[in-house]
Amino acid sequence: MGFGKVGSEVARRAKGLGMHVIAHDRYALADRACAIGVELVTFKEELLTADFISMHKPLTPATPKMFNDDAFSRMKTGPRIANVARGGVIDEEALLRALDSGIVAQAALDVFTEEPPPKESKLVQHENVTVTPHIGATTTEAQEGVALEIAEAVVGALKGELAATAVTAPMVPVQVPSQIVQSELAPSVALTEKLGRLAVQLVVGGRGVKFVKVTYASARGPENLDTRLLRATLTKGLIEPISSVFVNLLNADFSAKKGGLNLREERIVLDGSPENPLEFIQVQIANVESKFASAISDSGEITVEGRVKDGKPHLTKIGSFGVDVSLEGSPILCRQIDQPGMIGRVGSIKGEENVNVNFMSVGRIAPRKQAVMTIGVDEDPSVEALKKIGEIPAIEEFAFLML
């Protein structure tokens, strides 16, 4: 009962034990349940079929005593119930009657309507009831964990990073727990910011950026993919490299509006599994001049495209050239005539400076024709090294971009 963060984790573990898992939660995403292998059912269906019921429902105006005499009468005989959510979700007197009559075989209770429960409580003393104190958050380990989480959140906020426990971020949909949205989209969040930083650095002078289009390709429908979080981090990536403005998740839309940035979002709906939230993300900047001409696509905009691979952001397209380079370091872009020895010559220049190359990819029109070589480096190359790369006869243009 309840398929939020805790409920879905319990479901994963139950699946690992070989159980057939069903869940009732009117706010649960069908594709998320499908990805875990969980069947979403109605409340009545759950009562009729469940052998073990694990409670993870909050106490809201809609949930007080949802497990009452009527609910227990609809159950199959002999289920086990564990309530680690809120005591008021179960009518305790009705549960006691269900235990006495044998409708419920056993109950494990971590929460009660009155806490602590009175010593004379018949429910606490019942031979088929196991009780534990609801003090998990007050253990030494939990308190240390909370202290570390707070410290990490403060440091992350000062750096402008994704706040995993933010409660005021306007881009998190209210119908889905923010932790689920943010943890699932975290790799794509990193990708959107890096694509924004790449795209804006390709603009001559880095100024005059007014019209940006971002395209999300996904097998999910709009109702199951809220992109406001991604828009905020893309805005951060577009603005911070060219201004002194510090952009965070809360002021992103305001910062874009103040800077005259018109950010338009589009979606491409794909066939396939909705388990992954996004297949790829494309960022285009219109009506600007590029310092790397090959970044201009056939439609006339600076175009960069990427996707998440193995949990890491990758650049997969620049202009009309397909590439495949990890965005963990900083990239060097080279347009060249495709010919043998180019990778070695550029790599040798990096090696002479002890600059580590972490990734290299070449996208070309055809053999021996124009190509774009993308090189990821862990350290910033010197001006002299970049000059040597530019002096290689076959290289027509190059750009070093900092992430």
UniProtKB/TrEMBL annotation:
Pfam families, per database record: 2-Hacid_dh_C, PGDH_inter
Higher taxonomy: Eukaryota, Viridiplantae, Streptophyta, Embryophyta, Tracheophyta
Segment forming the signal sequence: none
Domain D-isomer specific 2-hydroxyacid dehydrogenase NAD-binding: 1-136
Organism: Herrania umbratica
Superkingdom per UniProt: Eukaryota
UniProt-listed InterPro entries: ACT-like_dom_sf, ASB_dom_sf, D-isomer_DH_NAD-bd, NAD(P)-bd_dom_sf, PGDH_ASB_dom
Reactions mediated catalytically: (2R)-3-phosphoglycerate + NAD(+) = 3-phosphooxypyruvate + NADH + H(+)
Coiled-coil ranges (or none): none
Domain annotation D-3-phosphoglycerate dehydrogenase ASB: ranges: 185-290
SUPFAM superfamilies in the cross-refs: ACT-like, NAD(P)-binding Rossmann-fold domains, Serine metabolism enzymes domain
GO cellular component: chloroplast stroma
Pathway entry: Amino-acid biosynthesis; L-serine biosynthesis; L-serine from 3-phospho-D-glycerate: step 1/3
Protein's name according to its UniProt entry: phosphoglycerate dehydrogenase
GO molecular function annotation: NAD binding; phosphoglycerate dehydrogenase activity
EC number: 1.1.1.95
